Amino acid sequence: MRARSRVVAGLVSVFMALALTFVGAGSAAADQSKSLSGKSPDGGASFSGTLTWTGRGSFKADVTLKDAKCDGNPVYFYFIINKGWTSEWQGKRRDNNEGCGKTITWKGISGSDSNGIYGPTLRVCTDIRPGLDSCKDYGNDNPYFP
């Protein structure tokens, strides 16, 4: 009888440990990454990279920007941070003035807002001189919002 109660107690301990392991694993949300790519409407700017959501109100990104045309026009991008409804703010503009076929990579770009971020839009542009810039927006929804 004693051996049987020790076996039962051992099995109960194992199941409790497994239950705690699974409960603990589910309590923290894992980062979610997504590939980024696109180009400006005139084809002068192209980009690629990775956007990683680190929570409801934060993300980080690595972006490579290429001057894809030999037209003498520099290229740039920036993030527009959409906080939901009509509230947004604009991130730092990042320029590539290196010329035809050259790329620049920015690592560790980040954005955060304590009230949450609905989604960052990456706006990529060719700086047309003179004239209106050729820009296109690429939206990225936050899987943690709301």
TrEMBL record:
This is Conserved putative secreted protein. The keyword Signal applies. Residues 1-19 form the signal peptide. Keywords: Signal.
